[in-house]
Amino acid sequence: MIEAHLLDQIPLFSGTTPKDLERVAWLTLEVECEKGNFLFREGDKADYLYILLSGLVQLTARGPEGQQTVIEILYPGDSFILAAVITHKRFLMSAEVVKKARVLKIPADELIELIRHGGDFGLNMMSTLSAQFRTMVRQVKNQRLRTTAQRVAAFLLDLAYDQGRGENRITLPHSKKLLAALLGMSQEGLSRTFTALKEQGVEIDHNQVHIESIIKLRRFCGFSNKLDATDRINPKD
């Protein structure tokens, strides 16, 4: 059991009645997980919805020969994996803690009961699923329509808008090893790409990035802050 006010601060539960919040809170567990722990593994039954309160979690998948790829990095406030939970399917990815985390575990049956009640919670659920679907579409577009250098450039521009509404100086949020895995390349490949991007005015110093011209880099990779920027940003232009 947790305090209901913890749920009230999470966008997914915005507008949920106090009575429903109390019922969900009664069945929700808060757990602390160390780096390297798995919350669930690919193929496990989706019996709980997970919500990250602090720390970082990576969603990964493995190929037929055991190779692993990072699908997504999750941040505080993110819920996962909603689609599997509400359809009683198995998880298609594993969730591994990469920075000590506090996580809420909410029983799937309780969430489905809330959906049956209707109201704001059902709309919030649809909004969350929509955002996750849009993220997946962006990933597919990046993989199929951009070169490696263009994908990395688009990632840096997304960070620029996220951290400072298009500022020229940004901070890489993760180690280069984790960034490389997220972008689907080796560390060596990422380093070579950073070197190649110097021609586009990008300078990397440890975890600090300076972009000489946001406009030039946008033209290089065809970046649109309306279409490519994450939904956390909500760009006005």
UniProtKB/TrEMBL annotation:
GO CC terms, sorted: cytosol
Gene3D superfamilies in the record: Jelly Rolls (2.60.120.10), Winged helix-like DNA-binding domain superfamily/Winged helix DNA-binding domain (1.10.10.10)
Record keywords: DNA-binding, Transcription, Transcription regulation
UniProt GO molecular function: DNA binding; DNA-binding transcription factor activity
Name listed for the protein in its UniProt record: Cyclic nucleotide-binding domain-containing protein
Organism this protein belongs to: Sedimenticola thiotaurini
Source organism phylogeny: Bacteria, Pseudomonadati, Pseudomonadota, Gammaproteobacteria, Chromatiales
Keyword field contains DNA-binding: yes
Domain of life: Bacteria
SMART domains to which the protein is assigned, alphabetical: cNMP (SM00100), HTH_CRP (SM00419)
One matching Pfam family: HTH_Crp_2
